[in-house]
Structure formats: C-alpha cells, structure tokens
Amino acid sequence: MAEQPNLSTPDGLESLVCHACGADSLSVFDQSRGLAAVTSDCRAWPASFLVAICPVCGLVQKVVDAAWRQSASRIYGSYDLYHQTPGRTEQVIFDQGSGLALPRSELMFGHFFRHRPLATSGTYLDLGCGTGPTLTAFSKLASGWQLFGYDPHLPDAQRVLAIPGVVEVFAGDLREISGKFDLITAVHVLEHVTEPLPFLQAMRSLMHADSRALIQIPHFPSSLFDLAIFDHCSHFTGSSISQLLAEAGLAIEAIDIELIPKEISIVVKRGEPHLTRPVGDQAESRAAVVSSIAWLCALQAQAIGVDTEHVGVFGTSIGANWLHGLLAERIEFFVDEDLSRQGQLYRGCPVLAPNAVPGRAQVLMPLPPVTAAQIRRRLGSLSADYLLPPGDTFIN
Fold first, then answer.
1. 14 found inside a domain
2. Could you tell me if 217 and 279 are in contact, meaning their C-beta atoms sit under 8 angstroms apart?
3. How far apart, in whole angstroms, are the C-alpha atoms of residue 135 and residue 141?
4. Does any domain span residue 361?
5. More confident of the two residues 227 and 391
6. d(CA 291, CA 293)
7. Strands 122-127 and 145-150
8. DSSP state of 342
C-alpha cells in the first residue's frame, strides 16, 4: 500500500481560508504535492496543487492561491471540451433504465421531466453553457421555450446563438443578469467556482417561487481522478453540497448519486437561507481523500514502472490524459471502445480497438479497479497484457 498522506497546515499557509465558508484553518494533505495534474477538458497539466479540507464546513478543496488562479486562468483561456470526438459531441452515458447510451444532458433532462412534465413554454438559463451541449439537448425537447446561456469564459457566442430557441448569451458577472427564469441548469460548473456561495446566491436571485434549478457536480469519493483535476477547486460530498445549498437559500427537492455514475444530481427550489453543520461527513471525507491520494500515487508508480517499449493506455479521457502527462512519448497507442474515436490519432498516437492491440504490448487501465476488472473480463482472451490498476489502496 502507498504511504498515507499526513494532514497539516504547512508554514506559510496559515492565512489561507476556505473558499466556501471563510474559515481560516484549512488542513492540507501534504502528499497531494506529488500528484500529477490533468484538466477537466482532458489535458495533462504541468503544475502542482495542494488538496485541503475545511475543519469547519468539511469541504474538500484545492488551495486557491495566486499560483493556482494564474494556472487556472491559462486553462480556461485555451479550454477545448470534448476534443476527442469528431464534432465535439457531448459525453455519452449508459442509461441503466432504458439500456440506451445517451448524451449526458439528454439523460439528465429525461429523468427530470419524467417526474415534472415539461410546460409548453417558459424561460431556461444554462449557467456555464460553454459551446452549448446542454442548451442543444434542451432545445430538442422544448420548442416553445426561450433559451439563454451564460459563461464567464464564453468560447464561441455565435455557435451558442445558432442553437434553435437561444435568445441571448451572457458573459461577465452573473449578478448583472436581470429577470427570472423558470428553469436553470448548472452542469459541472460549481466545482470550478472559487466563490461558490455568492454564485449560488446569484443563481437564487434569478429564480421565482416556482422555478427549479438542476445542478450536477462530481461526487469526489467515487470519482478517483477528481482530486487530480487541476481546475476543480471544490470536491463535493452529499453533505458538503447540502450545507452550501442551505446557506445559499436553496431547498433540495431531490438529490441522486445513482443517475449518472460518479456524479451528484440535484434539483433545488428557492428556500430561506440557513446554516447547517456537517453530520458524520468529516471523518468520511478525510478518509476518502487519503484513500484517493494513495490510489493515485500507486497508479503513478505502476505506470512509471512499466518495463516495455510498447505501452498503451486504455481510454482517451481524464485518466488516460493524466497518464499521458506522466509517460508522454513512452505511450505508443491508446485503446478505446468508442467506435467514433477508433482509427483517429490522439496525442500523436493511434486509437485502437481492443482487438487490434499488438500482442507484445502492455496496456495500462487508469480506471476504478472494479470497472477495469469488469472491462478486462468482458474483453475475454486477448493477446495483449491489460494491466489492472492497483486495487488495495482505495476505500469506496
């Protein structure tokens, strides 16, 4: 088992504060200093980071100092989501209910509107709209609605405005948007926000009594690479996000960690702001951070120690790009089961189908141990050596 990280407040960091509750007593996990970094748009990132936990509110978070802010700004200045797929289409998720593979947003909306029938008209605002995948999914469902987008790092306003039903796209300060909206979404936004409470309060100000907001964020204890994603500055559990929403005056109607694997899906409405205290979450969160860091350290050691000239990596997403930052030119090829990615060049290397991997190769699998084992069994008898990730350091 990898050496366990120590909790401390290192010299020079005593004045750092929690970016959720303002407490000035963050505890830092020292061994996070040695972890490789990756970006949320799947690029290896040459910068170090520190993971900490707030002993007051329990939020696991990055140390957001001047160096982190400068590096994050560079990430957002060149952000390129879904670059692995032709047409930059949204990530596909397997729907356990229907048996279909659906884009993330379609799965989210399908689940939401099964419980709350879609009105024939209304106003919808997507926060962190990017290039518009969530607006596109909603547009297919709601032809009578007026659609709006917001993104402080808007990459292509014209592309978003071309989506059917989109009326306006906002940039800049969220608090400058006026009016009320019937539905608001924030899909994989809040984990990037360095001031999450003011952000949620601003979102609440855009809601009326009958509005609903859909929020999706990573569930860090079940997302093994979440701590290594540089631009994710908050790492949420069900308890820590519930506390933050309550303080912002947003009442939870539904919270689900099963709808999409490794994510928390939440429906909220306007409520009254109030403070809560985390119940039993601090020890669990600390244990999850220690376990995640230990697993990432063990996976780094496994990758660096591979003794062959023919190294492949399974996948082309977060984990694979994290390994690319460690191994770079040692990687000969990637392996992907997504037919749309097979046959492409990625990071200068071919993307192969599993049955096309040469027999002399070793393939690293940067996936949760259980998932990797399931895939390996499903692939059956193949000539290549698929290396299962370390499995004894992660506590689920």
1. no
2. no
3. 10
4. yes
5. 227
6. 6
7. parallel
8. T
State how far the Cα of 69 lies from the Cα of 162, in Å rounded to an integer: 32
Is the domain of 170 the same as that of 256? yes
| Token code pair at residue 181 | 């909206």
Half-sphere exposure of 320 (CA within 13 A, CB side): 22
DSSP 269-292: EE---------SHHHHHHHHHHHH
Give the span between the Cα atoms of 23 and 243, in whole angstroms.
15
* Lookup result for tokens 């409520």: 271
Crossing angle (nearest 10°) for helices 196-205 and 238-248: 50
Q: Is residue 113 located within the same domain as residue 187?
A: yes
Number of domains in the chain: 2
Radius of gyration of the chain (CA): 21
- In-domain check, residue 393: no
**244 & 118 share domain:** yes
The overall average pLDDT reported for the chain is 87
From CA 304, how far away is CA 292, in angstroms rounded? Answer: 18
pLDDT in tens, 85-137: 555 555 666 443 444 566 778 878 888 888 888 899 999 999 999 889 899 99
| Co-location of 109 and 229 in the same domain | yes
Question: Poorest-confidence range of 81-95, 217-231, 267-281, 322-336?
Answer: 81-95
Amino acid type, 359: G
Q: Which domain holds residue 330?
A: 306-387
Here the CATH number for the domain that contains residue 156 is 3.40.50.150
Q: Is residue 74 part of a domain?
A: no
Q: Which are the contacts of 386, defined by CB distance < 8 A and separation ≥ 6?
A: 314, 363, 365, 376, 379
d(CA 67, CA 52): 16
CB 332 within 8 A of CB 312: yes
CA 181 from centroid of its chain's CA atoms? 25
Q: Are 118 and 231 in a shared domain? A: yes
Rounded Cα distance between 33 and 3, Å, is: 13
H/E stretch holding 365: none
CATH number where 310 lies: 3.40.50.720
Are residues 104 and 215 located together in one domain of the fold?
A: yes
**Looking at the structure, do residues 242 and 354 belong to the same domain, yes or no?**
no
Q: Are residues 104 and 238 in the same domain?
A: yes
For the chain, the residue count is 396
Residue 256 burial class via C-beta count within 10 angstroms: exposed 0-12, middle 13-18, buried 19 and up: middle
Name which of 334, 392, 338 is nearest 363 in CA terms. Answer: 334
